[in-house]
Amino acid sequence: MTPAADPRRASLALSLACAGTFLSFLDATVTNLAVPPIADTFDASLTTVSWVATAYVIPFAALLAPAGPLADAVGRARLFLIGVAAFTASSLLIAVAPNLPVLLGARAVQGLAAALLVPASLGLVLAEIPAERRRAAIGLWSAAGALAAAAGPALGGVVVDALDWRALFCLNLPVGVWVSIAGRKLLTGESRTGRAPDLAGSVLLALCVGAAVYGLTRGPERGWTSAHVLVAAGVTPLAAVAAVARSLRHPRPALRLDLFRSRPFAVASAVSVAYGAALFATMLLGVLFMTDAWKYSALEAGLAMSPAALATAVVGVGIGRLSLPLTPRTMVVAGSALVAASTAVLALLIDTEPRFWTLWLPAGAVMGVGVGLVTVGVSSAAALSAPPQQFAAATGMVMAARQVGGGLGIAATAVIIAEVPGSGAEPYAAVYGFTTAVNVAAALGALALRAKPQPQPQPPAQSESQLGSQSQPQRPSQSQPQSQSQSQPESAVGPSLGLAAVADGVPAVPRVLEGDQR
Question: Which of the residues 142, 321, 421, 516 has an alpha carbon 20 to 30 A from that of 501?
Fold first, then answer.
């Protein structure tokens, strides 16, 4: 019996993959609740403490796409365990961080680790689970992420309110230690296929986004003509050009620029950047607004954020399970319009008087429905714009685009709050106005998507088994069941970061992996 056919090994792989996904999703949704108390602990400004979120997002975005082929090169179980170990160790370092620089450095390591473990966990499921059980296994893997993301705000609020923000990051430790120990059994008999991707290109991408975010967040404090801002403004385009140039000539690029020849993919990527900017800004803004303007406790803020997260999970998973006849364009346009409507209402009506039942709850429910629609629609539009061999690469690229937008959106939130005068709800209303405009732009951009995705031809002599790799003839790995469809990629990225990740790829991944282009 081969390792992949061992039912005990398959069950262990699925359990560990679900646990790893749960870790990354839980951390992504509880961290925003830690931002206000972290600012108090280290006496930091909002523009500085906003890096608690962006320090995670930037390496996550840069490494997300090449992590799939990297898993094939070094071994999926091996990379998964490396990611879990790094995630657990960085969580411990965050919990005991004596100052903000140490905390931010640990957050960057945590983002890098999440980018490794999320795609590797799905690759592990695909490699270890027999073909006839794979759809159900991916459903469980998806449900683990959705459960963590939906429960995260309330759980985070309870922990911060009852204990301390440092305790939030200790939640990861028991699960991380168990996965690291139990997962060693999966290293036996694991095969390795392919070669490592261009990690230097990923570093250049991270430098580009990091410089842009740094320039935005330093401007309000140091001045927009300061040396810090001007240097960042110069580094950003230089790093972008270098990343593109390297990706054009590298056989396994960090950026799959060939995918942009497809107009639907290019549109989906642009919409994903805009959508990510608005969504990540909204996620952070809700906690900041309620704890500052409404004087909510962390527990109250976490509970208040939960309905939107739950609505997103229900809609996202429901669309995937019910196979509703909704095209990607319909989902993205309708979802963006719903989110824009909810943020517009908040921009116009919020003030320092708490109105949870009459304002926040209905607006949050509408927003959650919209988020679920957009996330599934964008991921589906990207995947269905590519040939079956490139489904995984296309999905990974569009998710990375969302993280790039998220980093910029978080920075924009900090800048707007710092620059808009007023001590009440005015700065927060201004950010909601910004997110409304960005969501309207996303809805208008999504109109360029095809009403009905056109099936893409499958090149007869190519097989892309690696996320983000160039299409090359590949032999099936020994760990991959021979009954697997040729059009089914061996590596794929599932959910990404934050509230958007409740449905990000969760319903879309099983369908994409099976080549369903209905």
Answer: 516
**Residue 472 pairs with which residues in a beta bridge?**
463
* Gap between the Cα atoms of 169 and 54, Å rounded: 17
List CB contacts of 472: < 8 A, sequence separation 6 or more.
462, 463, 464
pTM for the full predicted model: 0.82
Which phi and psi angles does 296 have, rounded to 5°?
-70, 150
Distance spanning both ends of the chain, measured CA to CA: 37
95-105 per-position pLDDT tens digit: 999 999 999 99
Q: Are 124 and 12 in contact (CB under 8 A)?
A: no
Report how far apart, in Å, the C-alpha atoms of 448 and of each of 149, 263, 483 are: 31, 9, 38
Residue 423 has pLDDT above 80, yes or no: no
What angle, rounded to 10 degrees, do the helices at 51-74 and 35-42 form? 110
CB 431 within 8 A of CB 439: no
Query: Can you give the length of the chain in residues?
Result: 518
Retrieve residue 407's tokens.
């980093």
Q: Which two tokens stand for residue 156?
A: 């985070």
Quick one: DSSP state of residue 385?
T
Q: What is the mean pLDDT of residues 301-308?
A: 92
- Burial, 420: exposed, middle or buried (Cβ in 10 Å; 0-12, 13-18, 19+)? middle
317, 143 Cβ separation under 8 angstroms? yes
CB 62 within 8 A of CB 205: yes
pLDDT at 169 over 90: yes
Q: Residue 136: what are its φ and ψ, rounded to 5°?
A: -65, -40
Which pair of tokens denotes residue 24? 């990354």
Amino acid at site 104: L
Give the pLDDT score at 365.
94
The C-alpha atoms of residue 158 and residue 181 are separated, in whole angstroms, by 29
Q: What is the pLDDT of residues 486-518, one digit of tens each?
A: 333 333 333 332 333 333 433 333 333 333 333
Given a cut of 60, is residue 86 above it in pLDDT?
Answer: yes
The Cα–Cα gap between 228 and 215 comes to 7
